[in-house]
Amino acid sequence: MYASTGPAVVIPDGRVRVTALHVAPERHAPMEERTSIEVVAGRGVVGDRWFGTRHRHVSVQSADALAEAAAELGRDVAPSATRRTVTVSGGAVPTVPGVRLRVGEVLLEVVRVAAPCRVMETSMGPGGAAALRRRGGSILRALTSGTIRVGDEVVQVAG
After folding, report:
1. Taxonomically, which superkingdom (predicted)?
2. Where are the domains of the chain?
3. Please, are residues 88 and 17 in contact by the beta-carbon 8 Å criterion?
4. Which residues in 36-66 are b (16+ Cβ under 10 Å) and which e?
């Protein structure tokens, strides 16, 4: 029940991979699908509404968790509906503050859980926020600059 508006990414090796990327140029603007995003250390994703904020540089969610939410809701959920920047397949997203992930060229650090908000009731429909409870992913800060592309590997690294 997981729906994607972009090309399918096959993950034959079982590794955690980026399967979708989205940005919104301003608050409440529609999410725009990308094949790559540029991340600036200490600033965030170039062209995204959160660029330049103190800690909310990148949000990461699990496609597997989205599929669970879709099953609970009984309808498809597009990755863009959650308003998260990066969607990954093949594993869970760490939620413990301080955990570090290398996503493509970029080193990120978990700041906090990405709690669903009332916007999910509009973007996902009724019950959206509840379906994402404990499935919303994480908010991370950018420790290094670089590019994240669809298909990039996601690896947890020592702090």
Report:
1. Bacteria
2. 17-157
3. yes
4. ebbbbeebbbeebbbbeeeebbbbbbbbbbb
Q: Closest by alpha carbon to 110, among 122, 101, 120?
A: 101
Predicted TM-score (pTM) of this structure: 0.83
DSSP assignments along the chain, one per residue = -B--SS-----TT---EEEEEEE-SSTTPPPEEESEEEEETTTEETTSTTTT-SS--EEEEEHHHHHHHHHHHTS-B-GGGGT-SEEEESSPPP-STT-EEEETTEEEEEEEE----THHHHHT-TTHHHHHTTTS-EEEEESS-EEEETT-BEEEE--
Residue listed under structure tokens 């994607």: 4
AA identity, residue 3: A
**CATH class for domain 17-157?**
mainly beta
10-residue mean pLDDT profile of the chain (159 residues): values are 35 75 90 96 95 90 83 80 89 90 96 75 62 76 98 88
| Number of other CB atoms surrounding residue 76 within 10 Å | 14
